[in-house]
Amino acid sequence: MPAQGTPTSIETRHAIHWREAETFDTEALRENFLVPGLLVPGALNVTYTHYDRLMLAGAVPLGEPLAFTEAHAQLVGSEHHLARRELGLINIGGPGRVTADGTTFDLSFQDALYLGSGTADVTFASVDPANPAKFYINTAPAHARHPARHITKEAAKAVPLGSQETANKRTIFQYLHPDVLPTCQLVMGLTRLESGSVWNTMPAHTHDRRMEAYLYFELPENAFTVHLMGRPEATRHLVVRNEQAIVSPPWSIHCGAGTTSYAFIWSMAGDNQTFTDMDMIAMQDLR
């Protein structure tokens, strides 16, 4: 069975208070908030966080399908990983196939999939191992079961924002969002910056009622994004490379600028799903 042979790594990240984070040097910041190595060919890699119990994972199947294993069930203390959790994923690679309790979903580039709690058997496969799918996966605790749904790029809610004058012209694609489909708490989408634009999520904001995670991608090998984090009055930065993720605590801003245009997947879990429920930070208050 694929689940028994799935190469996997599992890491746990504990929550950090801002008072502690402000004593960190660069190495400690990266150790606690940067998540590299999720999307590794032939593996299903997992980072389980104590921020709203959100799990970040990457699955890049090659010749054999990848699947959640007993270790992923033990991670959350249940009979299988999604017994009391919901799942969202976005494919940023080649054509992929996800099978959930016998139902198969074929996912093109930039398609998303939602699976409700109680889904027992999930496998991830590539249609063409020479052009593998890259599934970026989030799971979060769920108190109710909602139907599975395949969300194409065309079915996502597209929200254009920004301008070339402020170097932040971009489109937000809302996939797991109350305007698109019901979920318990997981909200997930993708932002794509246009050529010549580099700033994301500026003006900055915080939302103390929920955490957030970012996965940056489509960054060339010699490019990077400078991700800003921390309290507005005490910002820090992390240099983020292609297909690396960031765990953003509720007390932290989450914005940044790249050396070129790029895309990123954002996800949130916490007390509410109101996308505009945020505390805006005036530009002059950032330090």
Automatic annotation (TrEMBL):
UniProt: Zn(2+) binding residues: H205, H207, E212, H254
Cofactor note text: Binds 1 zinc ion per subunit.
A molecular-function term among this protein's GO annotations: zinc ion binding
EC number in record: 5.3.1.17
Named cofactor requirement(s): Zn(2+)
Principal EC category: isomerase
Gene Ontology biological-process entries: D-galacturonate catabolic process; D-glucuronate catabolic process; pectin catabolic process
Xref: InterPro entries: KduI, KduI/IolB_isomerase, KduI_N, RmlC-like_jellyroll, RmlC_Cupin_sf
Pfam families cross-referenced by the UniProt entry: KduI (PF04962)
PANTHER family: 4-DEOXY-L-THREO-5-HEXOSULOSE-URONATE KETOL-ISOMERASE
UniProt function note: Catalyzes the isomerization of 5-dehydro-4-deoxy-D-glucuronate to 3-deoxy-D-glycero-2,5-hexodiulosonate.
Family: Belongs to the KduI family.
Protein name: 4-deoxy-L-threo-5-hexosulose-uronate ketol-isomerase
Organism: Chelatococcus caeni
Name of the encoding gene: kduI
